[in-house]
């Protein structure tokens, strides 16, 4: 059990909770958060080390309860779990859609620290929902913004902005986290241009350690084999962008 130190509103729908404790996580890894009497659910680690942080969108009972918790309130934390991002190459293109920037903000910091040249495309529905734009810019990375409604940066999807970049520049790797349709679009782009790619995938998780099978995807488990996958795995997934399992184990459209 860990105490909450503070809650920071990042956007109208997204918060970061800082936790009293230390977790050394690879960018892209996650923890399971337990709120006694409510639920347990996965969250990406957005700040590693002491006073580690978790950034989340308020979408259900668990996150609504967490958003209302105050300093000194306690939550259970187990992890970190899963496979995170690895730095491959020197010139990197990072594409984050919505709360997909939660793990990618930490990755941008790590990659720049290790000498990589990073271009980050940050996408959101509207300017108020852009996540970790200033944080990523403070590393010295080049930041480009796209919004669905055109309120900031390029009007349109993050995939469209990324596509325009790879037509003009050579990148060693693409890193992605966000809506699955976005990831599928970037995967096609990486294949067309023969660029290495890593993407963080999201599925319903109950255990976090590969036992319950709720996050199964084409014979692999998001929690144990991912959540970050390389392009070879991404290309092999027949269900990617099409179906996922609901809480009862039924396949439903993504």
Model description:
It is a single chain. This protein is an alpha/beta fold. It folds into two domains: 2-81, Translation factors (Elongation Factor Tu (Ef-tu), domain 3), CATH 2.40.30.10; 91-253, Nucleotide-binding domain of ferredoxin-NADP reductase (FNR) module (Rossmann fold, 3-Layer(aba) Sandwich). The chain is built from seven helices and 19 strands. It has helices at residues 61-67, 101-113, 133-137, 158-168, 180-193, 222-225, 231-236; strands spanning 2-11, 14-19, 22-23, 30-35, 39-47, 49-50, 53-57, 74-81, 91-97, 117-124, 142-147, 154-155, 173-177, 196-200, 216-217, 220-221, 228-230, 243-245, 251-253. The strands form five sheets. It has a seven-stranded mixed sheet, with helices on both faces. Helix 5 links the parallel strand 13 (173-177) and strand 14 (196-200). The longest helix is centred in the last third of the chain and has 14 residues, at 180-193. It is globular and about 50 Å long. The mean pLDDT is 94.
Architecture per CATH nomenclature, i.e. the level-2 architecture of the largest domain: 3-Layer(aba) Sandwich
CATH superfamily of the largest domain: Nucleotide-binding domain of ferredoxin-NADP reductase (FNR) module
**Percentage of helical residues?**
10-25%
Number of domain units: 2
How many extended strands?
19
Q: What oligomeric state best describes the polypeptide chains here?
A: single chain
Q: How far apart lie the N and C ends?
A: 34 Å
Structural class: alpha/beta
How much of the residues is beta strand, in percent? 35-45%
User: Could you name the ranges where pLDDT drops below 50 across 5 or more consecutive residues?
Assistant: none
- Tell the overall outline: globular
The whole-angstrom Rg is 17 Å
**What pattern of helices and strands is seen along the backbone?**
EEEEEEEHEEHEHEEHEHEEEHEHEE
């Amino acid at each position: 059990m860990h105490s909450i130190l503070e809650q920071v509103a990042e956007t109208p729908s997204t918060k970061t909770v800082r936790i009293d404790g230390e977790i050394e996580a690879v960018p892209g890894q996650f923890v399971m958060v337990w709120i006694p009497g409510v639920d347990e659910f996965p969250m990406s680690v957005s700040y590693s080390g002491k006073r580690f942080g978790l950034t989340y969108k308020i979408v259900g009972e668990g996150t609504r309860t967490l958003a209302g918790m105050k300093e000194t309130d306690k939550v259970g934390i187990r992890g970190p779990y899963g496979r995170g991002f690895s730095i491959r190459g020197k010139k990197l293109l990072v594409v984050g859609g919505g709360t997909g920037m939660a793990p990618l903000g930490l990755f941008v910091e790590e990659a720049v620290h290790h000498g990589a040249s990073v271009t980050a495309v940050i996408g959101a529905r509207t300017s108020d929902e852009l996540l970790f734009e200033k944080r990523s810019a403070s590393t010295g990375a080049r930041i480009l913004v796209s919004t669905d409604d055109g309120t900031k940066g390029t009007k349109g999807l993050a995939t469209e902005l990324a596509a325009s970049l790879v037509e003009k520049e050579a990148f060693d790797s693409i890193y992605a986290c966000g809506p699955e349709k976005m990831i599928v679009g970037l995967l096609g782009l990486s294949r067309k241009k023969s660029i290495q790619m890593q993407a963080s995938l999201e599925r319903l998780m109950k255990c976090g350690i590969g036992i319950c099978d709720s996050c199964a995807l084409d014979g692999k488990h998001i929690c144990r084999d991912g959540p970050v996958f390389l392009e070879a795995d991404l290309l092999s997934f027949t269900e990617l962008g099409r179906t996922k399992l609901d809480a009862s184990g039924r396949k439903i459209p993504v």
